[in-house]
Amino acid sequence: MSEEQITPNNGAYSADSIQVLEGLEAVRKRPAMYIGDISIKGLHHLVYEIVDNSIDEALAGYCDHIEVTINEDNSVTVQDNGRGIPVDYHEKEKKSAMEVAMTVLHAGGKFDKGSYKVSGGLHGVGMSCVNALSSHMITQVSRDGKIYQQEYEIGKPLYNVKEVGVSDHTGTRQQFWPDKSIFIETVYDYKILASRMRELAYLNAGLRITLTDLRVVNEDGSFKSDFFHSEEGLREFVRFIESSREHLINDVIYLNTEKQGVPVEIAIMYNTGFSENIHSYVNNINTIEGGTHLAGFRRALTRTLKKYAEDSKMLEKVKVDIAGDDFREGLTAVISIKVAEPQFEGQTKTKLGNSEVMGAVDQAVGEVLTNYLEEHPKEAKMIVDKVILAATARHAARKAREMVQRKSPMSGGGLPGKLADCSDKDPIKCELFLVEGDSAGGTAKQGRNRAFQAILPLRGKILNVEKAMYHKALESDEIRNIYTALGVTIGTEEDSKEANIEKLRYHKIIIMTDADVDGSHIDTLIMTFFFRYMPQIIQNGYLYIATPPLYLCKKGRIEEYCWTDAQRQKFIETYGGGSESAIHTQRYKGLGEMNAQQLWETTMDPEHRMLKQINIDNAAEADYVFSMLMGEDVGPRREFIEENATYANIDT
Ligand code: 0RA
Q: Where along this sequence does the record place binding of Mg(2+) 1 (predicted)?
């Protein structure tokens, strides 16, 4: 590939110490190559790498409990009850196997764990990589009645492996302190870890995972903690994702088998909605770009349903043609497979390339689905009826889409009348603000830098795409305006719903709404639209939310914008001696209360503004959250909003 590729030593434990240092030095020089990035994402990735090793031990059948603890100082401890990393001394290597595992890049893969050694995590570099990126790390192994320990600084051992005590159990305990000189952010986010641990529990039925945060004490004196455990695995996972949707049929169609040496586990549900939600995993990694396993799944689904529908003569009266997409409307599925040597391709290395997997998944799904349809004629009819409905709707959508296409910039139809475009044409430099309301839109038009900032005012709440059929969404003026302003085309000749974002005219799309509950509702509606219809925009990091200030605080000639109550309080303390009288604070309830200059200074000027980038850490959870937020059920929605409200302090 490139000269940056690190080649592991072929013979096990044959690395001499110089090579070892070179290996870990490379990790510290180019950390992003090994863990993705050095932001909050990479920081959390360190935990996943360590947990992956314990999961391997669980897959091998020797471990059933993993405890992850965020310590007060933002170090993290991962403890498992497996056999413990081997500690035997290697004559040739002149060091303990444990030291090799912790200090040699890729050493993790050299332990022979048989055919189910499938791990590696996304970047597959294991414990030594985490060690190299930690200012300090302590490894403790309980084995053979003893506790063995070694400590490291930036990956270098501080002493030889030594005995530090006795133990009546086995297991591995890893504690690491992410290096502050490497990571931009070193404070762990409980929610991000919790969401991954929940996912891992569903993906590995039977495994128990405890997550504890020693930085947060509950009212009863205990620490913040969650326990994740799923006896039924993907069956429960798909029910969790679907819990806010109306089911078309109540069954989960489930299979857990092995074909051509590939373990395949799949759970499928049908809902009455219109989107296709397939979440696929390879070795516990979410393959958001899909690949051969997804292709095999789709092929089997289409073939099997088509054959059933034809054999049962249900298609005889159907006038329209049926396309691949029609078979997947309202389908939610989780696919999890294990591959010994996965080939990850694509932009984000989350697309499976192994060709042998396609047939394995195809065969497994074909068999199980055929049986299900034969044994459940009532449910089978409901599924096929839904497919026919989808095909009919798609034909209506084609007309709606042609309307949009005709109006798109490429076909000369011109841009939406409401759009105030920028003069620059280079998408990388250009920004589009989606602004709540015509009045704020007007202010933004005056305040912007017209060279690279375009403004599209939106009329209040855009359509909730979670509840609308595709062709209805395309009939909405606001949604059509967004498509045309962005310059993307929708679908291909095969009537796919996928948007083609190659022609995207802006690489920053910024949602700008009032800092109140209505505003955050509009944020959610727009994010839902992008998540369902143009997920690539989010995946590429193009979607942002602007953060207008809540207050303008004044004392004489001193003026300061404040984004939180704490900042306002601090201003009062600093300039008013703690007293609010003397001080003038102006509460901005909406964008409209700022003049063009203020809006520019606080919210639009790249030099001073703060943008929140929208990214999907966990697509399956996002799928659930969006369907829940936009669904019928008030209870879970209120709970979620109360827990996550940013604007709870604002009168509404
Ligand atoms: C290789 C062999 C054996 C255990 C492990 C690796 C192991 C590694 C890690 C990393 C984190 N937790 C772990 N638990 C186990 C088994 C050696 C034996 O007892 O035969």
A: 436, 514
Contacts of 505 (CB under 8 A, 6+ apart): 409, 425, 427, 430, 432, 485, 486, 487
Higher-pLDDT residue of 126 and 45 is 45
Catalytic residues: 436, 514, 516, 518
- Residue 376's domain comprises 234-400
Examine the domain organization and report whether 99 and 116 are in the same domain: yes
Residue 457's Cβ-count burial label (10 Å; 0-12, 13-18, 19+) is buried
CA–CA gap between residue 130 and residue 103 (Å, rounded): 10
Torsion of CA 369, 372, 376, 377, to 10 degrees: 40
Instruction: Judge residue 81's burial from the number of C-beta atoms within 10 Å of its C-beta, 0-12 exposed, 13-18 middle, 19 or more buried.
Output: buried
HSE (CB half, 13 Å, CA atoms) of 41?
15
Q: Six-digit token pair at 485?
A: 């302003």
**Closest by Cα among 295, 299, 319 to 307:** 299
Q: Are residues 191 and 55 in the same domain?
A: yes
Prediction pTM value: 0.86
What span, in angstroms and rounded, lies between the C-alpha atoms of 608 and 549? 12
Strands (E), 10-106: 65-70, 76-80, 89-90, 95-96
pLDDT given at position 522: 92
DSSP state of 418: T
Choose the residue to mutate in 48, 49, 53 for probing ligand 1, maximizing ligand atoms within 8 Å of C-beta.
53
The pLDDT value recorded for residue 403 is 67
**Does 53 contact ligand 1 (Cβ within 6 A)?**
yes
Alpha helices in 142-248 (DSSP H): 190-203, 234-241
- Predicted pLDDT of residue 494: 46
- AA letter at 528: T
Rounded to whole angstroms, the Cα distance separating 279 from 350 reads 12
* pLDDT band at residue 580 under the 50/70/90 scheme: confident
DSSP secondary structure letters along 466-488: TTS-HHHHHH-HHHHHHHHHHT-
The pLDDT tens digits for 586-628 are 888 889 899 999 999 999 999 999 899 998 889 999 999 989 9
Do 162 and 57 fall into the same domain? Answer: yes
Instruction: Give me the CATH number covering residue 311.
Output: 3.30.230.10
Residue 161 lies in a domain: yes
| 230 pLDDT more than 80 | yes
Give the span between the Cα atoms of 424 and 445, in whole angstroms.
16
- What's the rounded mean pLDDT across residues 384-397? 89
Residues 6+ apart with CB under 8 A from 221: none
Rounded Cα distance, 99 and 96, in Å:
5
Question: For 121-149, what is the mean pLDDT?
Answer: 88
CA distance linking residue 135 with residue 541, whole number of Å: 30
Give the contacts of 188 (CB within 8 A, at least 6 positions apart).
43, 44, 47, 70, 74, 76
Is there a domain that residue 642 lies in?
Answer: no
User: Which residues are annotated as part of the binding site for Mg(2+)?
Assistant: 436, 514, 516
57 within ligand 1 shell (Cβ under 6 A)? yes
396 CB contacts (<8 Å, ≥6 apart)?
471
User: Is 491 touching ligand 1 by the criterion CB < 6 Å?
Assistant: no
